[in-house]
Amino acid sequence: MRENGGTITASHLKDALTHAMIEVACELRDWQIQKKREGFDQLSDIPAMYINDDSALCLLYERAVFGLAKANLSERFRDIDTQALGHKKADSLSPTIDDYRRDALWAIARRHNVVALI
After folding, report:
1. Could you report the per-residue pLDDT of 10-32, keeping only the tens digit for each?
2. Domain ranges (residues) in the chain
3. Per-residue b or e along 27-63, where b marks 16 or more CB atoms closer than 10 Å to that residue's CB
4. pLDDT of 1 over the 80 cut
5. pTM (2 decimals)?
6. Taking the mean position of all CA atoms in its chain, how far away is CA 43?
C-alpha cells in the first residue's frame, strides 16, 4: 500500500474514501429513505444549521466519511510493517483507529439533533 517513501497513493486514498462513503450510506439508509419521502433529494436540502456557509449535516457526513477512511487506512498501514519498530507504531495507532471510528459513529448519530434544532 505504501509507495513513494511511505506515502499513501491517490488510488488507495480514493479506495478508502469510496468504501467509507458506502459504509456511511449503509448506516444512513433508513434515514435517507425517510428524508426522500419528505421531499428532500439532497442532504444539503434538509433544513439544518449552517456553519461557515456549510450545512451542519454535510459537515457531519464529511466527518463520518473521513473518520472511517482514516481508520481503514491506519489499519492497513499498521499491518504492513512487521519489524519491531512497526509493532510499536501499530500499538500506538490502535487508540487512534478507535478514535476515528468513534468520531464517525458520533457524526452519524448527530444528524437527528442537528435537524431537531431547526
Report:
1. 999 999 999 999 999 999 999 99
2. 9-116
3. bbeeeeeebeeeeeeebeebebeeeeeebbbbbbbeb
4. no
5. 0.75
6. 16
